[in-house]
Amino acid sequence: MSWSVLGSLVAVPALDRPDLLADPVAHALKSLDAASAAAVGVAEIDPALADTAAFCEAYGSPLDASANCVVVAGKRGGDVRYAACLVLATTRADVNGVVRRRLDARRASFAPMDDAVALTGMEYGGITPVGLPEEWPLLVAPEVAAAEHVVVGSGIRGSKLAVPGALVASLPGAEVLEDLARPVG
C-alpha cells in the first residue's frame, strides 16, 4: 500500500499499531471490512508537530493532501446539534453558511475544545473522521472524497492516518457536500 501522502514517514496498516490510535478510532477500524481497514495507514509523529502546518513542514507531507476535521456545534433555541466537517487544509469549512443550514441551526460555530474532546473520546489536535459518534453527520468536502489518500488525525496527537478519500466518504454519517470548503484567505 502506498501512503506517500505521509511524506518522509514510514506507515504501517493502522490495525497493526492500535497503540497509535484513540480507542474510538481503533474500534471503528475494526468494524470495517478487512480490505477497507487494510487501506488505512498509520505513522508515529512527534506530538508537538500534530498541527497541520507544522506536520507538513517537518515530514514533507503536501498541505493539499492533509484534511482537517473540525467539530461544529449548531444551536437552535436550547437544542445543540453536533457535526464534524472534513476539508482540505488549504481550505476552510463554511460553518456559517453550508454547515449551519445542514444542521438547521440559527447559529453554528466550532465546538468548544473541552466539548469536542469529551464527545469524541479523542485528543484535541488529533480529532479524526474515523470513530466519531455515529449520530453525527460527517460533512465531507468533494475534494477530500475524491483524493486517493488524505492525511488526518488518529485520535491522538502522536500519529497520523493516511485514509483513502472514498473510504472517508463511506464512513457512518458521511455526506459529501458541494460548497462545504472555501478557499483560505
TrEMBL record:
It comes from the Bacteria. Residues 47-166 form the YbaK/aminoacyl-tRNA synthetase-associated domain. It holds the Pfam family tRNA_edit. This is YbaK/EbsC family protein.
